[in-house]
Each structure stands twice: as structure tokens, then as C-alpha cells.
Amino acid sequence: MDTLSFIRNNFRWLLAGMLLTFSSSFGQTFFISVFAGEIQAAFGLSHGAWGGIYMVGTLASAAVMIWAGSLTDYFRVRQIGALTLALLAVACLAVAVAPSVWMLPFVVFLLRISGQGMASHTASVSMARWFVAARGRALAIAAFGYSIGEATLPIVFVVLMGFIGWRGSWGIAAVIVLAIIPILIMLLKSERTPQSTASENHASGMADRHWTRSEVLRHKLFWFLLPTLLGPSAFGTAFFFHQVHLADIKGWEHLDLVSLFPVYTGAAVISMALSGFAIDRFGSARLMPLFMIPVACGFALFAIADSILLAAIAVAGYGITTGINATLSSAFWAEFYGTRFIGSIKAMATAVMVLGSAIGPGLTGYLIDFGIDFDQQLLWISLYYLTAAVLAGIGIRSTRRMAIADA
User: CA-to-CA distance for 133 and 268, rounded, in angstroms?
Assistant: First the structure.
């Protein structure tokens, strides 16, 4: 089936996935960090203190995510999705009215578990489960919601803050999320796979069976892939989190840096679409060891960039990795471990990524407070990415050799 026919025949389910990924933007670091300067000024927080609060709230969401994410194995997407967005709207309102600093860890927790955690998790699990032969394309199309949010929301809300302030802007975010809920319910009035937990609707993984989460944890491939789960989330989050700091040390206006986000998004969209086709054609294993090389190069370039043009090229490298990762991760777990327990398996992987997003801002924030600016840290982060890519390649290669030997 060609792509246009695929989209036409599955439009309502693909659009539901896009709405969930777009909504997740309000709990993602690239959006929250737009307000970093205002939040730090309002509550008298240093980079390290704000990073620590963000880390605590995100760590708590990672712990809860392990349990919450597995609910997608038992409940319909329209139920989980609507509940998740309702919680996300409450979280946005909580930011708008937060009276003192003690509320911030709880607010960050709500934003992260509902936005970054469950909204994105529900979208990717539903695409991985509902589609098999076209899984890569379905994940890529649904992931366009991320790109739309990344390209539009930072600029829109930076401007909006100038008119109604940062608290009022969060109130608008809550209204947007609430407006999406009835649309999502209408689109999913009938789900693509009504019996979404029935075994006949699932694709098996390695050894022609469905792996449980505990079995995946005992499998060595997971541990070889752990750095690739942690790294992009940890340091990609830190990049957005410290955008105000980055603009300052580079001598740029904040809006100048934010204006590069559409470049990042454009690169992500292109690589997302291409990776969806590549996954369907070649499988996810071939892409897994390669997808972090663009961001490694991009971060190294950003470290030495002295102009917006070089920064744009660097940000494009980051976008390429982000676009591939938006489709690759979910496809990989489904391909290797099956879809019967994909909700709980992906929840574990998502929890690791959320953990990374907690570690990254906190660690880099404290290093900034100690006098190591983030652009200096980017060179070491690039080396980490390259090391993680090598480990992923070793893990996949050794797993395939074992599979051939056992056949």
C-alpha cells in the first residue's frame, strides 16, 4: 500500500497519535525551559537549584512511569489518552497558580508523568501495536505531533509571554490541552484493533514469542542499549533546559536561539519520515547503532560555534537524531520482543529515558554552577554518544549471532 492510501485508510488513528504526541509538548523540556528564566526569577532559583527541582520531579515521574505505562496493555487508548490529557491540563494550571517554590517539584512531576511520560508513551505503544507491516510509517506519522509542537510552541509562547506573562501563558496551555480531549475521544470512538489485548492481534519477537518485561530485563541486549536510552534524553533535555544560559554565554538573544528550533524541527521531520520507510524496509536493528552519530557531531559543532549559522547546522544534527529516535525505539522493542507486552516493555524504556531527562538538567546545572559552562560540556557529551553507539552495535551483533547459533 502506498503512503497516501495508508494515511487515507488509517487517518483517524494516525491523527489520534499525532494529537497525543503534540499534547506531550506541554510536559517536554523544550517547552518548560522556555519559562526557565521567568521561573528562576520569580522564585529566586540558581541554575543548579532549578535543575535540582526539575530532577526531583522528573525522577519521581520515572518511578511512577514503570507502573503507569503498563496500563496501556490493559486499557483502550481513548481511556488512557483522555485521562492523561486531563491530568496534563491540571498540571498546566498548577504551574499558572503555583504560589511558592515548594510546589514546583510536584508541578514538574505532574507535567512530566502526563506529558513527557504517558502522552508520548500511549501514542507510540498504540502505533506499534496497531500496525505491523507499516509500523515504521505509522510511528513516523504519529511523531509529527512532536515536530509541530517543537516548531511552533516555543516561538508562540515566547511572544505570548510578552503580552500576558508566564503564568497566563500556562493557563492558555491548559485550555489547548482540554480542547484536544473531546477530539481524541471522537477519533477513537472505534479503535483500529478493538480487542487490543487479544493474542491474535499481536506480532511476536525473537524466537517467535512474546517477551515479558522481566525477561527483557534479564536479556543482555537491554543493557547494551541502556546508554542509548539514557543519553539522548539526558543531554538533549539539558540542551533545551539550558537554552537561556546557552544564548547568554554565546552572546545571542534568547529569541535568536529559539528561532533555530524550526531548523531542528525540519531536520527531525525529514529524518523521521525517511527512518519510517527505512524501518519498514530494512528493520530497526540496522539503524540502532547509527542514529546517535548526527547528534554527536552536532553537539561537538555547537560547542565551538561562534555564529547563528554554525549553530543552525549543529541543531540540524541534533534534529536528525531526534527524528530517527521518534520512530526507532518503539519499532525496535516491538520487532525484537513482540507486541503482547509492548506497553510494559516500552514503559520500562520510557522510564529509563525519563530518568535520563532528570539526570541531565540536574547534572549539567550543577556543573554550570561550578563554572563549567554548558558549551564546554557538549564536547564530553559527544564522546558519550559515540561510545553508546558502539555499545549498541556490539549488543545487536552478539544477539544476532546467538540467534543464528540457536536456530
Answer: 23
pTM: 0.76
Mean pLDDT of 211-229: 87
Taking only the tens place, the pLDDT of each residue in 303-350 is 998 888 899 999 999 999 988 887 887 788 877 887 777 788 888 887
Q: Residues with Cβ < 8 Å from 275, sequence gap 6 or more?
A: 136, 140, 287, 291, 323, 324, 327, 328
- Confidence band for 200, pLDDT divided at 50, 70 and 90: very low
| pLDDT at residue 30, as a whole number | 83
Residue 196 has pLDDT above 80, yes or no: no
Residues 200 and 53: beta-carbon distance below 8 Å: no
Higher pLDDT, 300 or 369: 300
Q: Report the 3 state secondary structure along the chain.
A: CCHHHHHHHCHHHHHHHHHHHHHHHHHCHHHHHHHHHHHHHHHCCCHHHHHHHHHHHHHHHHHHHHHHHHHHHCCCHHHHHHHHHHHHHHHHHHHHHCCCHHHHHHHHHHHHHHHHHHHHHHHHHHHHHHCCCCHHHHHHHHCHHHHHHHHHHHHHHHHHHHHHHHHHHHHHHHHHHHHHHHHHHHHCCCCCCCCCCCHHHCCCCHHHCCCCHHHHHHCHHHHHHHHHHHHHHHHHHHHHHCHHHHHHHHCCCHHHHHCCHHHHHHHHHHHHHHHHHHHHHHCCCCCCCCCCHHHHHHHHHHHHCCCHHHHHHHHHHHHHHHHHHHHHHHHHHHHHHCCCCHHHHHHHHHHHHHHHHHHHHHHHHHHHHCCCCHHHHHHHHHHHHHHHHHHHHHHHHHHHHHHHHHC
User: Do 243 and 260 form a contact (C-beta atoms < 8 A)?
Assistant: no
Q: How many residues does the chain have?
A: 407
Q: How far, in Å, CA of 338 to CA of 133, rounded?
A: 13
Res 22: pLDDT: 95
Q: What number is the average pLDDT over the span 46-72? A: 85
Would the CA dihedral through 292, 298, 301, 302 be positive or negative?
Answer: negative
Half-sphere exposure of 389 (CA within 13 A, CB side): 20
C-alpha cell at 300: 561537538
Q: Which three cell numbers stand for residue 39?
A: 521561573
Q: Is 83 a residue whose pLDDT tops 90?
A: yes
